[in-house]
């Protein structure tokens, strides 16, 4: 286990989350009108509450990833109420209205 993976596990455990996958890819080229590719991709679950719900965290650097993990979970895209407030459904389609 790398030192960064250990940091990720520790940050997730503060929220009671269990690390399922942590992957890092070098930052690289991108398509026109897109941001850079690569960075950290982390998937975690809450082993007590609901094993079916996955939390996904992203970051171009370990510092950005840890910042995103430490943000309150109500500000992540996993919050269906926040999705609805922004005018989206969970399938990412725009809600008319």
Describe the secondary-structure layout:
Layout: H1 3-14, E1 18-28, E2 37-46, E3 50-59, H2 62-70, H3 80-86
Helix pairs in contact: 1-2
What does this structure look like?
29% of the residues lie in helices and 32% in strands. The protein is built from three helices and three strands. The model is unreliable at 92-97 (pLDDT under 50). The protein is α+β, with helices and mostly antiparallel strands. A hairpin with a 3-residue loop joins strand 2 (37-46) and strand 3 (50-59). A three-stranded antiparallel β-sheet has the order 1-2-3, covered by helices on one side. It has one domain (3-72). The N and C termini lie far apart (48 Å).
Defining key terms:
alpha+beta, 97 residues, single chain
| Topology as a string of helices (H) and strands (E) | HEEEHH
Q: What are the low-pLDDT stretches, counting only 5+ consecutive residues below 50? A: 92-97
Q: How many separate structural domains?
A: 1
Q: Give the overall silhouette.
A: globular
Q: Which percent range fits the helix content?
A: 25-40%
Whole-Å distance between the termini? 48 Å
| Strand line-up across the major sheet | 1-2-3
Report the biggest beta sheet as strand number plus sense, adding barrel if it closes: 3 strands, antiparallel
Determine the number of helices (DSSP H or I, runs of at least 4 residues). 3
Rg is: 15 Å
For the residues shown, what is the average pLDDT? 77
Number of strands: 3
Q: Strand fraction band?
A: 25-35%
SS content category: alpha+beta
């Amino acid at each position: 286990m790398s030192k960064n993976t250990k940091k990720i596990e520790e940050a997730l455990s503060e929220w009671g989350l269990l690390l399922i996958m942590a992957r890092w890819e070098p930052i690289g080229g991108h398509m026109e009108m897109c941001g850079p590719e690569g960075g950290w991709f982390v998937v975690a679950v809450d082993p007590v509450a609901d094993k079916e719900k996955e939390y996904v965290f992203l970051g171009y650097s370990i510092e950005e990833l840890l910042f995103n993990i430490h943000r309150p979970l109500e500000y992540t895209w996993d919050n269906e109420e926040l999705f609805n407030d922004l005018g989206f459904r969970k399938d990412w389609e725009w809600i008319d209205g």
